[in-house]
Amino acid sequence: MKQYLYLLGFAFLLSGIYTSCKPDTLTALHDNEVIAQDKYVKNHTLTKFKDVSGIFFKDSIKGTGDTIKSGYKVMLYFKITLLDGTVCFTTQDAAGRNYEEFPFYVDVSNTTVNLQYVQQIAGLHHGMKKMQVGGTAFMVIPSELAFKAVDTNVGYLIIPRFSTLLATVYVKKAYSPAQQLAQQQQ
Predict the structure, then answer these.
(1) Where in the chain are the domains?
(2) Spatial distance between the Cα atoms of 82 and 80, rounded to a whole number of angstroms
(3) H or E segment at 164?
(4) pLDDT reading at 186 higher than 90
(5) What's the rounded Cα separation, in Å, for the pair 31 and 173?
(6) Which CATH number fits domain 24-185: 3.10.50.40, 3.40.50.300, 2.60.40.150, 3.40.50.11440?
(7) Nearby residues of 129 by Cβ (< 8 Å), 6 or more positions away
(8) Sequential DSSP letters for 95-129
(9) What are 59's strand-pairing partners?
(10) pTM confidence score
(11) Distances from the Cα of 86 to the Cαs of 76, 120, 157, in angstroms?
(12) Among 62, 111, 137, 153, which is least packed by CB within 10 angstroms?
């Protein structure tokens, strides 16, 4: 009986050593994301477009209107995908046409606004403040500025943990906080 207990204890000790030597799953997922993101950025020559916030931001068409600031309500069209091209969020129909603008509130946080998944992407807030009305931009948003280590279930789509997002955004209109207030008072 003692030998059986010693053998069981030894097996338990070995399993503890084995599992403690394995790389952390979350760390491995994050490392894989960084490798895939770096490869994408290099293959698409976006290295020089890295912003201090951590996103890669490239103006496709420079806008001519107001510069977007915190507190602005921005009406935009967008397409957000994973690195593999899987569409996560979009204002486009199956033929690639945009019909209705999406209201995006820059750096505004309240219960109603935060119910929308797109509103929760911090990297999008950083990128929007680099844009002007009428402009189109492309952004590479690392998971640290998107959904991090959380599996995000959006109806039919699950955005895996540590997913870098690719966003193409067109700012159609923007309303300053003062303009929003004036609209509410009418």
Answers:
(1) 24-185
(2) 7
(3) none
(4) no
(5) 38
(6) 3.10.50.40
(7) 67, 68, 69, 70, 106, 107
(8) TS-B-S-EEEETT---HHHHTSTGGG-HHHHHHHT
(9) 137
(10) 0.81
(11) 20, 19, 9
(12) 111
